[in-house]
C-alpha cells in the first residue's frame, strides 16, 4: 500500500527539488528581466540560465514569468518568489559576513539606491566607508523618486536615500538624515536677481522642470497649488546638470537642491540664487528600508556610519 505524503514532507518539497544555484539564477533573471543579462552577471551561458529557471519553475509548479517576443514579464507569483529569493540570498550573505567577522575579515555586499540629487554627497560617504571595508562588493543605483519606490517594493537594495517620504510610509523604517534646502536659481543677469521676489511674481517666469516622478517637482507643484498658482513650465529635463545648463543659457528659472550647486557655480557667477518668499524650502533627506527587513551587517554598519558622520555632509552645503 502506498504511503500518503504527510504535511512535513509537503512543506519541505522545495528543499528537495530547488537548489541555491537556481534561486540565485532566478533572482538575477527577475532583476534584469533578461536571460542574457542574467547569464552575463553570473558568468554562465544563456542556455544554462534558461534550463535552470525552467527546472526551478517546474519545482514551484506555477508559472513564474511570461515571455512575449524577447521581453520577460514576471507573473504575480513570480514577483512573490523573486522577493523570497532575494530574502534567502540576503540571509546567506549576512551569514557569510558574520562568519568573515569571526575570521577577522571584512567582506560582503552593500546595495544602496538613491534619488538623483543625493548623488552629490552619497559617493563621498561610500568612498569614506569603503576605505575601512576594502573588500566589499558595492552597488549604487541613482534614479528618480518614482523608480526608487519600485525598487523598494521589489526589495532590490539594502538602504535607500530619499527626500520626501510618502504619506503611506507605515511599511518603511524612516531614519531622518540631513537637511535638503531647495532654492530657485536663475541666470546671473536675470532681472529678479537681488530683488525680494513673491511667489506670485515668480509664477510669471518660465520654469525648467524635472520629469514626472521627481520629488522636487512634486514639492514645487504642491507649494504653487497651495497658493492657487500654476507653474509656467517651459522645458522638462531629467538631470540637474541639464537643468543648470538651461538656466545658464537664460532659458528660465529652476528649483534645485542646494546639494546640486557646487561652490564654483556661485563663485564664477554661472547661476544666481533668487531671494523668493518661502525659500529656501526646507526639506530633509531620509534613509529608509522596508519595515521588518533584516539589515545585513554591512548595511547596518553603513547606516551607523551615515548617522555618525552626517555633520560632514551638512557642512558641505553651507
From TrEMBL:
PROSITE patterns (alphabetical): HTH_LYSR
Keywords assigned by UniProt, alphabetized: DNA-binding, Transcription, Transcription regulation
A Pfam family assignment: LysR_substrate
Top-level taxon of the source organism: Bacteria
Span of domain HTH lysR-type: 20-75
Record-linked InterPro entries: LysR_HTH_N, LysR_subst-bd, WH-like_DNA-bd_sf, WH_DNA-bd_sf
Transmembrane segments: none
PANTHER family in alphabetical order: HTH-TYPE TRANSCRIPTIONAL ACTIVATOR CMPR, HTH-TYPE TRANSCRIPTIONAL REGULATOR
Record family assignment: Belongs to the LysR transcriptional regulatory family.
Protein name: LysR family transcriptional regulator
Amino acid at each position: 500500500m502506498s504511503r500518503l505524503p504527510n504535511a512535513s514532507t509537503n512543506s519541505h518539497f522545495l528543499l528537495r527539488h530547488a537548489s541555491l544555484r537556481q534561486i540565485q539564477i532566478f533572482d538575477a533573471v527577475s532583476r534584469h528581466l533578461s536571460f542574457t543579462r542574467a547569464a552575463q552577471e553570473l558568468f554562465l551561458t544563456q542556455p544554462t540560465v534558461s534550463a535552470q529557471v525552467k527546472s526551478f519553475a517546474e519545482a514551484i509548479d506555477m508559472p513564474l514569468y511570461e515571455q512575449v517576443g524577447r521581453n520577460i514579464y514576471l507573473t504575480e507569483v513570480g514577483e512573490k518568489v523573486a522577493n523570497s529569493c532575494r530574502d534567502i540570498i540576503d540571509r546567506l550573505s549576512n551569514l557569510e559576513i558574520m562568519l568573515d567577522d569571526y575570521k577577522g575579515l571584512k567582506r560582503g555586499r552593500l546595495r544602496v539606491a538613491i534619488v538623483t540629487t543625493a548623488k552629490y554627497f552619497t559617493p563621498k560617504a561610500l568612498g569614506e566607508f569603503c576605505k575601512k571595508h576594502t573588500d566589499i562588493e558595492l552597488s549604487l543605483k541613482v534614479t528618480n523618486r518614482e523608480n526608487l519606490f519600485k525598487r523598494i517594493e521589489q526589495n532590490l537594495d539594502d538602504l535607500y536615500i530619499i527626500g520626501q517620504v510618502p504619506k503611506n510610509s507605515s511599511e518603511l523604517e524612516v531614519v531622518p538624515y540631513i537637511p535638503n534646502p531647495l532654492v530657485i536659481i536663475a541666470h546671473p543677469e536675470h532681472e529678479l536677481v537681488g530683488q525680494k521676489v513673491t511667489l506670485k511674481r515668480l509664477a510669471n517666469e518660465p520654469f525648467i522642470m524635472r520629469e514626472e516622478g521627481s520629488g522636487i517637482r512634486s514639492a514645487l507643484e504642491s507649494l504653487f497649488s497651495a497658493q492657487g498658482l500654476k507653474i509656467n513650465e517651459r522645458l522638462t529635463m531629467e538631470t540637474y546638470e541639464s537643468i543648470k545648463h538651461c538656466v545658464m543659457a537664460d532659458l528660465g528659472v529652476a528649483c534645485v537642491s542646494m546639494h546640486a550647486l557646487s561652490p564654483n557655480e556661485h563663485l564664477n557667477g554661472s547661476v544666481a540664487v533668487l531671494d523668493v518668499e518661502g525659500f529656501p524650502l526646507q526639506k530633509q533627506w531620509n534613509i529608509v528600508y522596508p519595515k521588518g527587513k533584516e539589515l545585513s551587517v554591512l548595511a547596518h554598519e553603513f547606516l551607523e556610519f551615515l548617522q555618525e558622520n552626517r555633520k560632514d555632509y551638512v557642512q558641505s552645503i553651507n
